[in-house]
Each structure stands twice: as structure tokens, then as C-alpha cells.
Amino acid sequence: MAPLSTVLIVDDEVRSQEALRRTLEEEFEVFAVSGAEEAHGVLEQEAVHVILCDQRMPGTSGVSFLKQVRERYPDTVRLIISGYTETEDIIAGINDAGIYQYLTKPWHPEALLLNVRAAARLYRLQQENQQASLEIRTAEPVLRKRVEAKREALRNLYHFERLIRGEGSPLHSVCEMARRIAPYDISVLITGESGTGKELLARAIHYGSSRADRVFVIENCGALSDTLLESELFGHKRGAFTGAYENRVGLFEQADGGSIFLDEIGETSPAFQVKLLRVLQDGEIRPLGSSRSRHVDVRVISATNRDLEADVKQGRFREDLYYRLTTFSLHIPPLRSRAMDIPVLAHHLLREAVYALEKPVQGFAEEALQAMMRYPWPGNVRELRNEIVRMLALSVRPYLDVELMSQHVLNASLEEDLTPRESDMAGGMLKDRMDALEKRVLRETLNRHRWNKSRAALELGLSRVGLRAKLLRHELGKESPKDKK
After folding, report:
1. What is the distance between the terminal CA atoms of the chain, rounded to a whole angstrom?
2. Which has the closest alpha carbon to 262: 297, 233, 283?
3. How far is CA 167 from CA 200, 338, 341, in A?
4. Could you tell me the sign of the dihedral formed by the alpha carbons of 8, 11, 14, 19, in that order?
5. Is the pLDDT of residue 226 over 50?
6. How far is the C-alpha of 48 from the C-alpha of 268, rounded, in Å?
7. Which Gene3D superfamilies match (predicted)?
8. Which tens digits make up the pLDDT trace of 233-266?
9. Is the N or the C terminus of the chain less surrounded, counting Cβ atoms within 10 Å?
10. Which residues of 338-355 are buried (b: 16+ CB within 10 A; e: fewer)?
11. 339-483 maps to which CATH number?
């Protein structure tokens, strides 16, 4: 259990002193004295975190006493409490005495507790900050090595091969084009549906450029209002708007020398687009509430799942900003149009899930992979990852089979197979046409029973051995190790 924060009460009125003590002593270790001389004695003997001092005391004022405390014990958090008549004197001395909070009489117990808790928390943060600064100074050589090692690891992690793809995938040409333009400081717009890997491609471009040793920052432009987005990107000065309690450095300034990834750029309002265009044109940002602009050197990579060309024609997106963002554009095709990527992606995502859930399996049954390749995956890679994590969580065998898949995935993946196609039934030998129909019936029945072969065999009037023979003949559900008995 952490030690209690210590509070020193300095008040010459006995009743007031006791009231303050009773309010605070359940949460804090409290010392109470009647004047400045006694208070100095306590400060010499005890590690005091917070001082709560009355303004009116014999011999000296609270402000004068706290000025002395600030010089000798600068880390102590100082609060002063007084009636309304001394307000001007206290305000005049607040800066010199370093007073954290001014409380007025009569005070409310809950309000007093809140202020003293905040003061104690500030003291702890100051101590942690000093400790961290000391550790950083003493460990600076080690930290530099670690930073370099981290940068190298990031370069190795976010390269173009990180976008997993199979043989003949359309992603090959996308990655090759991205690799060729990565070294040049030109803006890039990445388009594609949600979940296709636009952020991964943006990271690969950054870490494949001369800016790889500098920072890469991300902002989702569709998640914030104009004011908050402007504050996040360009920063703000204290008091610039309601809730701006301190200065904030924006992401453009943080990314100076590096790259910024603006996701969902198509969701920004026309008013914000004007401000962003000015930054891209001039290379300068002006924090909210500031009268001075600051130059920044940032490469902008943006992304959207919208058709920005259509939005430009409809007047929803500024044409001049569109051309600023699209010196080069790349399109990532959806997963449904690159089924050849699904097996390698599935195995990669399974390895990640096995590591995250600490639940090892050996892989997928063949029929599960075939079902995945037939499903359109409207949520793209993100949906595929979720499905694999779900299957792994439910699994009790070494291989993930179709019985673990979500029903809607199975239904959609086999929808084409449930109704015989005219092309299959219109020509060919009778045996071939009957085989095609039998294969579809088998698959539909297994799907309805979530690939429980015993139930499917019972419905079809077959033995389990007979069903297995038909499945092998039609190359349905190639046996996984759990079926080999």
C-alpha cells in the first residue's frame, strides 16, 4: 500500500485548524500548527507534500510565509485559504509565492478534499518527473542505442512484404508502384475499402523513404469535429477554446522531418479543407489561438474509402486540395477480388492469433480454407482476422474446421453452390450432371449441420463411412488429422 501524502495545516484559529484536520485526516497524514515559526520546524523534520495555510496569522501573512517556503522547499505544493476581504493581497502574491490554489472561506469539505487530493497528486507527478529526468540523463547512451534498435526494427517490420499476398495477387503491382515512389517526397493518396490495409501501405511508404528515421504519426480525420481536428493537427495555445487548459503541440509539428498519415480524409468538412490546403501550400501551421505561424517539413500520406473524384464533381471535396493530395494515388483492391491472398493471409493471421491467445493449433482444414475463399468478406482483412480469432477461441482440435465458422460466413460462401447452375445441367453426360448435383446436395447438407458428418449422414440415409467416401470422391472436406482414425 502506498504511503499517505503529508499535509501541513498552518492556522492560528483552533476551531478552523481542527475542522481542517478532521476533514483531511482519513486520507492524509496531517500535521497542524498555529504559526509560521512552528511550520518551519515541521518542514525541517518531515517530508511535507502539501501546505494548507491561512492568510491571516500573527507576525506574518500566509503569502509571505509561502514565499519563504517556495525558496527552501520548492517541491511542496502550496494552497492558501482566506476570507473574501484579502482577495487582492493574495492575488498580487500568487506568482511570487507559487501558490497552487486559492480557497475562500467558508469552505465546503468535499471541495477542500478535491483540491488537496489534486495538490497531492501534483506533488507525486513532480517527483516522478524528476526521477524520470534523472534516469534519462544517466541512461542516455543506452537509450540512444535502444532508439536506433527500435528504428531498425520498425524498418524491418513495416516493409512492403508486410502486406501479405499470394501468387498472382493484384497487390504485387500496388506494392511495386509504392516501392518506386516511396523515396521521393511527394504526397500519396491511398484508396480502398475499410480493412484492406491502407495504413500498412502508408507505413511501408514511410519506412521505405529517407524519412524512415523520423516520426510517423496518424490521425483519423473522420472521428473528430473541425475544432478538435484542427487542434490535433496544428496544435493550440492555452485558452484558445473551452477546455484548452494548456498549450498543445500538433501532429504536424510533431511529425516535422517525418510523415503524417491522414486517414478518412474524405470525411473532412469544406471549412477544414481550406485550412489544410493552406498548410500544404505554404508548409506552415498556425496553432489555434496563436498569432505566429511555424514552418514544418512533413510528407503527407492520406487515405479514404470514398470516391474523391466523384466528391470533387459534386462539390463536396475541394478540387485544389484533391490535386495537392494526389501527386500519386494507389488503390488497394478489396479482399473479394483477390481470393488467392486468402490462404496466405489466413495462415499469417492465425499465427498472430495463436501468439495473442496462447492457444496453439496446427492450421486449417482444407474445407475451411475453401469456404473462406468463397466468402466475399465485406469487412476485408479486418473481418477475416475476427473470424479466425473466433474460430481459434472455439477450437478444441488441432485443426480449425468449417464447423467453427460463423453461420453467415458458411451460408454466403456456399450460396452459389446451393442452386445448380444451368451451365452444369444443360450439357454433358448424365453421370457428370448427376455428380454435380450430388456434390451440391452434399455441401448444402453439411453446411446446414455445420459439417457434423454424423448428422449429415443420418439425414442423407448414409453411413458415416459411405458419406466419407462420397466426400473424398467429390474432393469435399479433405480429411484433416482428426478424421483419420
Report:
1. 58
2. 233
3. 20, 10, 8
4. negative
5. yes
6. 51
7. 1.10.8.60, 3.40.50.2300, Homeodomain-like, P-loop containing nucleotide triphosphate hydrolases
8. 998 888 777 777 788 889 999 999 999 999 999 9
9. N
10. bbebbbebbebbbeebbe
11. 1.10.8.60
Q: Is the pLDDT of residue 49 over 90?
A: yes
> Is 153-331 in the same CATH topology as 6-135?
yes
**Secondary structure class of 206 (helix, strand, coil):** helix
Compute the distance between CA of residue 74 and CA of residue 98 in angstroms, rounded to an integer: 9
394: cell is 472455439
Task: Quickly list DSSP for 94-115.
Answer: HHHHTEEEEEESSPPHHHHHHH
DSSP 41-61: HHHHHS---EEEEESEETTEE
Give the least confident one: 12-16, 325-329, 389-393, 479-483: 479-483
Beta carbons of 241 and 288 less than 8 angstroms apart: yes
The predicted-structure confidence for 315-333, as pLDDT tens digits, reads as follows 999 999 999 999 999 999 9
Cβ count within 10 A of residue 252: 25
Q: Give Cα 271 distance to the centre of its chain.
A: 26
Q: How far out from the chain centre does Cα 249 lie? A: 19
For the domain bounded by 153-331, which CATH number is listed? 3.40.50.300
Q: Are 120 and 5 in contact (CB under 8 A)?
A: yes
Q: What span, in angstroms and rounded, lies between the C-alpha atoms of 463 and 454?
A: 8
State the average pLDDT over residues 404-412: 84
Kindly indicate the confidence band of residue 181, based on its pLDDT and cuts at 50, 70 and 90. very high
Fold of 6-135: Rossmann fold (3.40.50)
Angle between helical axes of 430-448 and 464-473 (0-180°, round to 10): 120
Under 8 Å between Cβ of 264 and 312: no
301 closest CA partner among 261, 258, 342: 261
